[in-house]
Amino acid sequence: GGVARTATPKVVASGSQLRVDWQETINHPGYFEFYFSSAGDANFIKLATVNDNQNGSADLPHNFSTMLTMPNGNCTGCTLQMIQVMTEVPASPSFYYSCADIELSTTAAPAPTTPLPTPSPSPEPPSPTDAGHCH
Questions:
Q1: Is 131 helix (H, G, I), strand (E, B) or coil?
Q2: Which of 4, 6, 79, 113 is the most buried (most CB within 10 A)?
Q3: What is the mean pLDDT of residues 80-86?
Q4: Listed residue (125, 111, 129, 99) closest to 4, CA to CA
């Protein structure tokens, strides 16, 4: 939260497949959710859920990768958000947010294996889609 948007967002082809790679450096049971906003960190839509299938493994860091289908259309102030949902206390999960500024373009060349920067954990937010934690 509180970080200004980058002046050089990653340009992604509209409707393309985007490879996202990340690491978990502290073992937490749970899963990862990916959201997309084309409206300046508002009206997020869920793109995917990835289960943490390495919970029992002590060989940190845990490396993950997934392919996301990007929405169709153009936008210049888009946000790709990853939320790590940690379920040590199932009735009251905690969250780490990571965000990337992107631009969707119908004229950009598809780059299906282009990874986004490895996200870093941020402070625990009050709710999983609270847009205020991206910028």
A1: helix
A2: 79
A3: 96
A4: 99
In the chain, the amino acid numbered 77 is: G
Mean pLDDT confidence for 31-54? 93
Query: Would you state the structure tokens that stand for residue 48, as one six-digit string?
Result: 């995917």
**Hey, what's the torsion of the CAs at 23, 47, 36, 130, to 10 degrees?**
-80
Per-residue model confidence (pLDDT) at position 122: 43
When pLDDT is averaged across residues 22-35 and rounded to a whole number, the result is 94
Q: What angle do CA 30, 33, 38 make, to 5 degrees?
A: 165
Neighbours of 123 (CB within 10 A): 9
- Mean pLDDT, residues 95-112: 84
Q: Find how far residue 104's CA is from the centre of its chain.
A: 15
